[in-house]
Amino acid sequence: MATVFVFSVRMHERYLYPAVVLLLFACLCQPSKRLYLCYSGFSLLHFYNTAHVLFFYDPADYDPKAPLILLVSGGTVLFLLLFWAGAIRITGAGRTLPPDSQPGQASDPDYLYTPSDLSLAPTASRPVSRLKAADYACILVILSLYSLFALRDLGSREAPSTLLSLAGGESIALEFDPASAQCLKEFAYYMAPGHKRSFLLSAGDESGTARQVGEITLENVFTWQKADLGELPSGTCRLTLTLDSREASLLELVFLDDAGNILTPVNAGDYPALFDEQHLYPQEISFRNSMYFDEIYHARTAYEFLNGLKAYENTHPPLGKLFIAAGVAVFGMNPFGWRIAGTLFGIAMIPFVYLFARRVTDSTPLAALGCFLFSFDFMHFTQTRLATIDVYITFFVIVMYYFMYRYACLSFYDTPLKKTFLPLGICGVCMGLGIACKWTGVYAGIGLALIFFGVMLRRYREYRYAAGNPGGATAGISHGDILKDFRPAARNTILFCMVFFVMLPVLIYLLSYLPFRDGTGDGLLLRVLHNQEYMFRYHSEMDAPHPYSSSWYQWPVMVRPIWYYSRIVTGSSGAGGLREGISAFGNPLVWWAGIPAALYTLCLLIRNQSYRRRQGLLSQTAQKRGSTAAFLLTGYLAQYLPWFFVTRVTFIYHYFPSVVFVVLMIVFCLSGLRERLKGKRFLLLLCLYGAAAFGLFLLFYPVLSGQPVEADFVNRFLRWFRSWVLAAK
User: Fold this and answer.
1) What was the pLDDT predicted at 501?
2) Kind of pairing, strands 709-710 and 578-584?
3) pLDDT score of 211
4) What is the distance between the alpha carbons of residues 475 and 380, in angstroms, rounded to a whole number?
5) Rg (CA), the chain
6) Quick check: 648 and 546 in contact, CB under 8 A?
7) Distance (Å, whole) CA 370 – CA 357
8) Across 271-297, average pLDDT
9) Rounded to an integer, what is the distance from CA 176 to the centroid of its chain?
10) DSSP per-residue letters across 293-335
């Protein structure tokens, strides 16, 4: 590709990009300073050439003999020729392995040959390092600190609860003091499902004469909203609201005069459910007392589950909404009640992330850093304080991969088989729970399957190795025991997985539909089947553009945060007044650092595989780092890669389940610096990194939590890019 490009005439620069990528992989597979230098010069000149074409090239005024153009063109050809020469030298075309050389002991380090059996040698189960007092202290400190932020200002614990149900055609007739009735301007309402209920408004005077003056539609549920009464006829002292929909459920009505004061009807006693909680009407309507974003779907459906109503949100499986319903059942149908379950799940993620990072790095400081970075990642904070279902699938993704990692570190050749079943079984249960929360749990299941069969393939290769020397032993494991145990252990493990990764998840999924009502009266199985068909059709045919949607390639660099909530604080005027807002995106020191961390992890994996092919045997440390790199990349791509092919509208919060792997890859890469930066220097680096990430969290805290902040401050210091909309104008 590269040769055709540099020796052809007027070829477009895009044709060279695949060659640049392939040459990079050549450098990774054949590490050589000469190749790296040639590649660096070649790619830099290609970059400059492309930039020159984009910004300076003018086909009407082009001089092919200009010195700069000749220099770039000649340099590109020269570096390519040097790369060719280096590649030919390293591969040693035409050479053969000396007769006295044994696999894994080649006298020529540049020679490539078929992998030897040494790469199949059995490996022992990795020893589990027990948690120390310092580990428990780190978990407790991070957990406590994060909880202070997460539970603060989560929402009101009070909301109207007494209900008045109306059927179509029923009316609410209200009488007001004639003197105060002239000041009626609007009313606020708070209602239960369903939404968009139309009422005919009639106004009457003391003589009893009444006429229709308008139609009012009550929009969202469990959200304080206002409706304008318009210009009422002179002498109005009676208002009648007649339901023009099939049914409605009202929790509270609050009538207001032109000064915002509450006017209670004279006959309020006739409708005690509507006027008994007037004190709960807030001075300012905000996220603290009302729903925002998709809470109007998920939290509402949790209420419907608890009350045996038809489920409004039916585009995702029910389990996530059941967790929300648990919080409502304990704390009531109020903002705190429908958000607390997700917040507690967000807090529960923290110890699992610590344990995961501890297992990956075998380091308390690195585990503490990884746990700290994840805890104070912006997405983790914002998404777990919102009553939607993404927090639950993310929690189960973390737990299922943690236990799969524990299983992957065990070998049934030196560990009792029943002991290997424990992490594997927990992993399967969590996979079932995750899928019952959201279909994206299937993505995680695919990653788990790849890892599991990779482990089983490794055990089979060890079995083949042992068959070549039945009387020997490797890593303290008798080859005879391997030959005896492989078939029954592999068979029983697969049967166990059939139960815990197939049958049990199906059962969990079915049981999650027990409280689900679709209005058909069908049995459980039919309700499940009909809903699967509807969900598939909805997600495959969905075509609903959104101003804050974003594509998969924009998520790691955070091109477009999603703006959940905004409000101009009452009394603030002008562009620099106080604003409240809640946005979801990542901590730049986490997400942006995750990009090179993922690339480094990939490079490490490729280099390890290349070395194994050439040398046949890796050290135990290198094998561990290689397998850990493969595990983390598999988990990351299982959650991220499927979104490459999704054509429906997507949002940045779909990247949330991938963030834990971003954090783990960061600390995994940092673990490679332990030998170079020993002792205090290494700890200082970790502390500075964690402090910087926490500093950014504090800086952005107002736009993550809905706290009042000056718009000028947001626009000057927090809006780093034009596409970041974090405060109302």
Assistant:
1) 96
2) antiparallel
3) 85
4) 42
5) 32
6) no
7) 6
8) 93
9) 52
10) TTHHHHHHHHHHHHTTPPPS--SS-SHHHHHHHHHHHHH-SSH
The helix-helix angle for 417-437 and 319-331 (nearest 10°) equals 80
The long-range contacts involving 461-466, CB below 8 angstroms and separated by at least 24 positions, are 461/120, 462/120, 462/121, 462/122, 462/123, 462/411, 462/413, 464/120, 465/117, 465/120, 465/121, 465/122, 466/122
Residue linked to tokens 């039919």: 526
Say yes or no to pLDDT of 92 above 60: no
Give 168's DSSP letter. Answer: T
Can you give the pTM of this predicted structure? 0.82
The position carrying tokens 């380091």 is 363
- Beta bridge partner(s), residue 398: none
pLDDT tens string 128-178: 888 999 999 999 999 999 999 999 999 999 999 999 999 999 999 999 888
CA distances from 585 to 6, 65, 363, 377, 582 (A): 42, 49, 29, 9, 10
3-state secondary structure of 227: strand
**Mean pLDDT of the region 653-680:** 91
Structure tokens at 84: 């060719």
Taking only the tens place, the pLDDT of each residue in 7-21 is 766 678 888 888 889
First-to-last CA distance in the chain?
51
- In angstroms, the Cα distances linking 162 to 191, 271, 276, 306 are 10, 11, 8, 16
CB 667 within 8 A of CB 366: yes
Kind of pairing between the strands at 171-175 and 238-243:
antiparallel
